[in-house]
Amino acid sequence: MKRFGVVLAASSALAMMVVPSSSEAAFGGYYRILARHSGKAMAVQSASTANSANVFQWTYGGSNTNDEWELRDIGSGYHRVINRNSGKDLTVASASTAEGADIFQYTYGGTNTNDEWAIVDVGGFYRITARHSGKSAEVAGGGTADGADVVQRTYSGATHQQWDIVSLGGGTSPTPTPAPTATPGGGATPTPQPTATPRPTGGTVYFQNTGTKTGWPNYPQSPQNLGRIDDVSNPVYKGSTAIRFEQTYVDNATERYHSEVTYYGAQSNGQDKYYGFSLYLPTTWHNESVKDDFQQWGTENPGGPWLLMWIDQQNIVAGHPNTISQTNFGSISKGVWHTTVSRLRMQDGVPFEFWVDGAKRGAPNCTCSATGGSVRWSAGIYIAYWYDRYRSGLPSGSQRVRYLYQDHYRIASSYAAADPGNW
């Protein structure tokens, strides 16, 4: 199977990187497999361990692991998809090549390849295609209810044929041995020989920074008021440094509270890009409603705010009148690193997509054509309400010094390339 590498194309201090990609992604370990259209997980019915037990979609969770799967690389661009609860494989019934043929679980092996799958990146989601038939796993009829069946059908690009694959860690990526015994849906199990398998990283990387303030176009930065931007060695997500962004409240301040790194000309109208980085809130962080912006996109001509993301109490929120309505993307915990990826398509009437730790948190509709044609991207901390609402004094008990950490930034052409967990 083709392995993924990085080629540097020197074109100034900020080189663009091209990461070659085969259409099939490489995986290893355990995963949730979530239908894009419904958000529900591929699961084995009734947590059965029997051969021929049905596979359907169901809301993820519970005490069983029948909705978790090991993706095991078997070479040549194919994987086994093994149910964590039963140890049996995702299989097309009777090796059928027909439209709508049922998909169930069965012991792996035999002379057919109806239990081997190509997992193909389709822009941050994946189609899962049976090797023997060339048809893809889908939720029958595009159903969104618990219990909707999973079958095979010719791929059309519909979202009920696309899957979000979310890592849970663990598992192995073995080299298979021949399986001499044929059975209706499978046979002998190969002897595991664990090897490390890289996660998929196909795509073009337009910019990256490994947690240093010097690697940004706006260096040396000029934080407002008493703000600071510092490289630190602890905590770090990966590598040797991360960036610490800090702001201190000033009574009756005459300027705002930006402490940010910025990449100019990040994107133009008509382009589709992904923005990834890791985020860490210290355990001393107060849950407040002062609009702590941790990333934003701003128009460049004329300059101004355009799409902002901030922390409100324990939740991630985004919005701006020019782009998306205010959207709550759910909570974020303190004292641990989180990976974030945002997908921005600069056209009108398309979703703005946002993931935390590999799980999609939302996709609100966006009016994403920018006045002037381009936007810059900023990350760090900007405490908007300290200036807009509380210039003459903070509410009692408020935190007067606030800081957070960020690391491993990328702007890329695919989710896989932008995700900090992949590089």
Provide a brief overview of the structure.
2% of the residues lie in helices and 43% in strands. Strands 1, 2, 15, 16, 17, 19, 24, 26, 27 and 30 form a ten-stranded antiparallel beta sheet that branches. Strands 18-29-20-21-22-23 form a six-stranded antiparallel beta sheet.
Task: Explain what you see.
This protein has about 425 residues and is mainly beta. The protein folds into two domains: about 25-170, Trefoil (Acidic Fibroblast Growth Factor, subunit A); about 205-420, Jelly Rolls, CATH 2.60.120. It contains two helices and 30 strands. The protein has helices at about 385-390, 415-420; strands spanning about 5-10, 15-20, 30-35, 40-45, 55-60, 70-75, 80-85, 90, 105, 115-120, 125-130, 135-140, 150-155, 165-170, 205-210, 230, 240-250, 260-270, 270-280, 290-300, 305-310, 315-320, 325-330, 335-345, 350, 355, 360, 365, 375-385, 400-410. The strands form eight sheets. Strands 1, 2, 15, 16, 17, 19, 24, 26, 27 and 30 form a ten-stranded antiparallel beta sheet that branches. The chain is elongated. The two termini are about 20 Å apart. Mean pLDDT is about 85; it is low at about 1-25 and about 170-200.
